[in-house]
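Predict structure. Chain length: 361.
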Amino acid sequence: MNSIKKRQSNIELLRVITMLGVIILHYNNPSIGGAMKYAVPGSLNFYMLYILESVFVCAVDLFVLISGFFLCTSYKRSWWKAIELFVQVILFSEAIYLFKVVIGAETFSVKSIVIHLIPSNYFVILYIAVFLISPFINKLLDNITKKQFNMMLILLLCIFSVEPTIVDIFGELKGSTVIGLSFTGMYGSQWGYSVVNFVLMYIVGAYLRKNIDSIKNISYSKLLIILATCVVIMTVWSRVNDRIGYLTEKTAWEYCNPVVILSACIIFICFYKMNIEYSSVVNKLAAGAFSVFLLHNPILSLIDIKKYVNMNCTIMLTHIIISAVAIYLICWCIWWVYDKIISVVYNVLKKRIHIPDINVE
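Prediction complete.
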């Protein structure tokens, strides 16, 4: 049990790779990096971008799953953790805005300074919600039998993954959102950008934790075959989305898509099975992953992606990898400085301001 509680370098390595995957997803994103917008349709590079998208699209699900795996045995949560996340979002948002002002991408105004004081980041908001209610979820999960947990998980997946995805497929075929049919909400699944999907992935992570002894015995060959099948399904599915048209997000790459969720589970199990010795370097790099998430987009905008996306496929892939790693390291360095300063501030505040933990023990 203690070995699971300790930060394992294999899972910390997964955090780093998953965050690199997020950077690659945004490198591809037509409205951020733009690679998928610039790539010649039908070219080798075009399909390679689609494959990369299918491989890494489960990144957000993975982050929440990992939290569920490691937090599911604890009945305590600190309000300070939530406060720290909110403050970090605000400070980084202001810093990014001022950076854009300096490079001429934005004009300075007091109104903009005030607007950036609002911590509007969907992942952070939803993650904090799940983080705060998770002790109560843990209490529930610890007081049901294994059979009941199995039944509940199947039901949750059917209600909040399979059914909403089917409804969204109907919407694509119809050409407009199907209103009032999805179990997730009136306007469909919200493509998995919902607290429903975050809670679901947290529970999936808890399920893996409670059944890890049997799950980790699955051979790598079986896991990789399943993962490869998922990637092929999503890639082909996404091309079908292109042909029939889609509303805002492709159903193939929705976070609530059961194939995406299965991919997240398979990747997690593969890394959990790895026998990697403790590495302080890996663990320290992983500690800055959240900050990389907050900071990487503006740096992506400075890269001449359009120049490389239609070059030789090897050159394009090399550019993607080097860009992702470089952006991660730049953001990590910023986090390192931030952490050194802010940790001193929080140490003083926590000594002077006592906020009782959420405790359901």
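Summary: Residues 246 and 359 are 44 Å apart (CA to CA).
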